[in-house]
Amino acid sequence: MKRNCDCLSRWSFADVILSVAALFLAVGSAGLSTPGLLAQEANYDEDKVPAYTLPDPLIDNAGKPVTTADQWTRHRRAEILALFEEHVFGRQPEFPVQLRTRLRSEVDDAAGGVAHRRELTVYFTEDDDGPQMDLLIYTPKNATGKVPAFLTLNFQGNHTLEADPRLRITPAWVRNNGDFGISENRSTEASRGGTASRWPVARIVEAGYGLVTIYYGEIDPDFDDGFRNGVNALSAESDGERAGNAGGSISNWAWGLSRALDVLQDDAQIDAERVAVFGHSRLGKTSLWAGAADPRFAMVISNNSGCGGAALSRRAFGETVARINRSFPHWFCINHRQYGGNESELPVDHHMLIALCAPRPVYVASAEEDRWADPRGEFLGLYHAGPVYRLLGRTPLESAEFPEVNQPLQSDVAYHIRTGRHDVTDFDWEQYLRFADRHLRR
Ligand code: GTR
Question: Which numbered atom of ligand 1 lies nearest the CA of 307?
Fold first, then answer.
């Protein structure tokens, strides 16, 4: 089965051509000399990581030390959240919504016969043809009460989790990955079950957990169209020039996860107070931002989230702030672009994004071959969030020593680097289930 690939190293030929064209266009418009810019190959040499000083999450904007949990919770946390809204992701959307749901299907024989499964359409307005998203909800068939759950976004559509013809094929735009059963950026029958390798649904429900997933393109299709599609249609913002701190697509995707959690508050099978928000790669950046902005998420998991996720931007290792904003100008707010090649001027770094999730359990995971995501930078992002976890009475990573591969570290936070490439694997899920057993079991 061709595995859908969302990573840079295996883009289709068309994607590469389009990407290079976009890069030249972006470079031209940015007034930067193409040769100079393209000569900035990614750095993969630790000896060339620039010297940097991380901003201290426990020194507030006025330069005063934060020494008590109360000062963090009532003052400093809000300051840092505002800094990420202003300088990295953009404001949390404030779309006017009237959430209503429609149960599209309910079966008791999903995932090889072990899961109860529902498809629940969530409408954001009164218009059945307006912005909407489908929640695909798996729960254990034999559950005797509400269960904890993983809530996550997927890359290719809910119908790609298992090859079951009863699942609705997303009607939304999808990225055309060549032969991945997609034509005209719409999914076809051939794409059913295409990402099943990332979703051990039977294992998850048999461990006593629910799994709720949404195709991220239904919230905000992942291409730079000037913020008109998906939930952007809900925006009352004028068509004028976009504000520097207007939310990017990561903020929209995080907003969608919070609306899904709104819906789960009334769910009869899932315990909305025990929901872990999980994401891979760009959707790992999203899960961290969703967990930071919405304290209702009980646990946060970042799988290979890299630059703009768990990795420290100041290291400029692998993908950089400049590169990610050129490749994906719609993901972050416009203000973020000024820090490309200028990371030391960022008033935050991504250890502070993780600290915003404290004292809740956070899991950061890396892959040994995923140098683009800077595994050591992801580990250090979690490590340097430690003082905040300690101030709040939790046990963070105790050592700054980078762990061996396939040797997970788990306490109130967790980290592992596994062998293999940028992906979501059974090894990853086994560690997440173990971490959830530690923190989400009643
Ligand atoms: C890459 C991007 C990474 C990561 C990845 C993914 O193209 O450079 O930041 O987000 O895509 O989301 O799969």
Answer: 9
Instruction: Mention the CATH class of domain 8-439.
Output: alpha beta
Tokens of 174: 């999808």
Ligand 1 mean position to 284 CA, how many Å? Answer: 10
CB of 378 within 6 A of ligand 1: the answer is no
Measured from the CB, is residue 175 less than 6 Å from ligand 1? no
The strand ranges marked E within 186-292 are 186-187, 210-215, 270-280
Report the distance separating Cα 291 and Cα 309, nearest Å: 12
**Cβ of 324 below 6 Å from ligand 1:** yes
pLDDT score at 28:
38
How high does pLDDT run on average in the chain?
Answer: 91
CA distance 5 to 121: 27
Does the active-site annotation cover 281? yes
What is the per-residue pLDDT across 58-102, written as a single tens digit (0 to 9) for each? 999 999 999 999 999 999 999 999 999 999 999 999 988 899 999
Instruction: Single out the residue of 263, 252, 322, 304 nearest to residue 93, CA to CA.
Output: 252
Question: Active-site residue 327, yes or no?
Answer: no
